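Our collaborator T.R. sent over the components below with a one-line note: 'Predict the complex.' Nothing else. No constraints on interfaces, no templates requested, no preferences about which chain binds where. So this is a plain run: every listed entity goes in together, and whatever single assembly comes back becomes the starting point for the next discussion.
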Amino acid sequence: MVKADNNHPHGGTLRVDRLPHIWCQGCGLGIILHCYAEALEETGIDLDRVVTISGIGCAGRASGYVNTDGFHTTHGRALPFATGVGIAKPDLKSVVISGDGDLFSIGGNHLIHAARRNVDILVVCSNNFNYGMTGAQFGPTTPSGTRTPTSPYGNIENPFNLVALVAAAGATYVSRWTVYHTKMLKNSMKRGLEKRGFSFIEVISPCTTGYGRLNRMSPVDMMRALRDFGKIKKVPPTEATIDPTREIVLGEFVDVEKPTYNDVFSSLYGKTGAL
Amino acid sequence: MSDILTGTYFVHGDWACAEGAIAAGCRFYAAYPITPATEIAERLASRLPEVGGRFIQFEDELGAIASVLGASYAGLKAMTATSGPGMSLMLENIGLAVMTEAPCVIVNVMRGGPSTGQPTAGAQGDVMQCRWGTHGDVEIIALAPESVQEMFDLTIEAFNLSEEYRVPVFLLPDANIGHLYERVNIPEKGKIRIVNRKKPSVEPDQYKPFEADGSLVPPMACFGEGYRFYVTGLTHDEHGYPDMSIEGQDRLVRRLCDKIRRNAGRIQRVEEHMVEDCDLLVVAYGITARSALSAVRQARAEGIKAGLLRLITLWPFPDKKLEELAGRVKIVLVAEMNYGQLVREVERAVRPTRVTFLPKIGDEPPRPDEILTEMRRALHG
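Returned assembly:
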């Protein structure tokens, strides 16, 4: 545990000894981290009961800046690791902060199964439309036609709609925001922290150094696009589409109650879940 | 139901392994079904809930081993079991277990490979994969049971070693032992030695999760205990924070390896039969050691001075014991159910003593008469 630093506005919640963070200027991950710190503080959740877990990539470093127990796993395996934590110690709240490549490409299978099981995990997925850490190659969220170092003639693949996929897999809470919509993002995180079950928040976040530079967008252009194209709608998750140059549908798309994995396990075996 | 089913049973090896795990204090098991390890999952699916433990069947072996690490860091003794194809998938997070010093037990009931190979056939073909399969410089511990009784006993030993050294420990039965039925005695609770991980004795704000004393094994806090520590698969300093310096890499890799290397003598276990005056030393492990012992007895009956060294610990490899015996024998015969794996380690350890090798590929272990024939050929040409 690091000692609280009263000179920092989030000195008790973040590992101030690790700041400044490693992320590029204009990157949205700092905003996501800030919203997460505020959400932890405003819910008043006991930080000793939270485990912040991440995979690999730029977003993977987020777990190292939070003053909770934290674990930086291998690529794609944050969710099964968190599942192990959540099942072994049902009174802990696991929060996975990771990127779109980590969670939906190499970790895609784990994601749909974690949602199906409804283990008590909050997932915050930073979607920057590419693999940032390795130099902006295309990934499972990159819009068709986009030029990247590994799609020099334009991306010939189709992107996933993350919220529709996770909703179909059985998540009990699903929302999408951008790093421009900080109040909504923070409130969504608070909802996910307080809700029991599998919650998923997609956060559209600019990769200025990779995606932005290669597609001739400045950091300011990218933030303006989030402001101008982000449209809050009350629609089913299948209609929550993303067109980064016209409209990015935002909002809460699923919020339902279902027994969690641990609830069912305990009721089947007549145990309290206390091990 | 009790966690330790004291008594005598006629059961198969996988059953004994599952009961050994529960007796050792294992309270989390995650796996993906795979022949010939599935029976361990089936036994634990019914037994773990009875003792307040958790069983989970995963979508694949990548996830199963990741969840074992999560459960281990959440404070439970945790295990997974698999076979060749699943073992190949698990290697990724075996490396993470080594790097983050997560105590855990991995059972690989070895079947015929490569690839899908012969799922129901026994083999000893993964002994090098277990040692060298994950990337980077690692030291792990591996134990090879030769009986259903040892499936029980060595599973407990595997947990004890993993807790003491904070390292993944492999149990490597061949499928022949996993599926063998024979008698197992489960002792009374008080007669089973149990080791638990060392816990920190300092206040949370003084705790450095990877600071070790002379034992080189750091005390381990777990999630939810108020220490609020950070762990990464990146090279890290004693605080657990990423360290990309040349010195940091050197320091961490040396400690991770040396905590096992320096204690190799304490970890290693072998069994010696008639080695005091032998001219020919047979080296074998697992099911093969049972054939070899029979062959050694037959050889003695016809006047060949043979002895057997049965390896119980495969890794860290018992070099010193082999060096010591090699100086006294004319020839060393290695028999194993593969096309040449541990024989390479034996050759290295006993040099310049002559080594002859009896490989056996396919489900059947080398028969005693085959080993005896090889002994005669090696001695008399």
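Summary for T.R.: The domain at 269-380 of chain B is CATH 3.40.50.920 (Rossmann fold).
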